[in-house]
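Exercise 7b. C-alpha cells:
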C-alpha cells in the first residue's frame, strides 16, 4: 500500500545502473543495480544514495545510467460515484 501512496504522489519506479571501479583493482569495473521509487526529474532519493556511496563506499563511481517509469497515470485513475454490493 505504501508504494501505491508514493505513486499517487508522482513518485516513479527509478532504476539506476551504476558502474564503479573495484577498490582492490581500480582498472576493473563492477556493475550495481539500484531501484527505488523517486521523483523525476531531480531524483532526490538517487542523489541521497549516490552521496552516501561517495562518502562511505570505497569504489569510485564511473557511470550512472538512470531510467524512470511512471506506473500510474491520471488516465488510470477514476472516481467511482456509486458502489453496489452483491451477496
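Sequence design result:
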Amino acid at each position: 500500500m505504501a508504494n501505491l501512496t508514493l505513486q499517487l504522489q508522482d513518485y516513479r519506479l527509478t532504476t539506476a545502473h551504476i558502474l564503479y571501479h573495484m577498490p582492490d583493482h581500480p582498472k576493473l569495473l563492477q556493475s550495481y543495480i539500484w531501484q527505488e521509487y523517486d521523483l523525476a526529474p531531480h531524483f532526490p532519493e538517487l542523489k541521497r544514495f549516490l552521496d552516501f556511496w561517495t562518502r562511505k563506499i570505497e569504489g569510485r563511481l564511473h557511470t550512472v545510467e538512470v531510467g524512470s517509469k511512471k506506473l500510474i497515470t491520471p488516465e488510470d485513475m477514476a472516481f467511482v460515484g456509486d458502489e453496489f454490493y452483491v451477496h
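Instructor comment: The mean pLDDT is 87. DSSP finds two helices and three strands in the chain.
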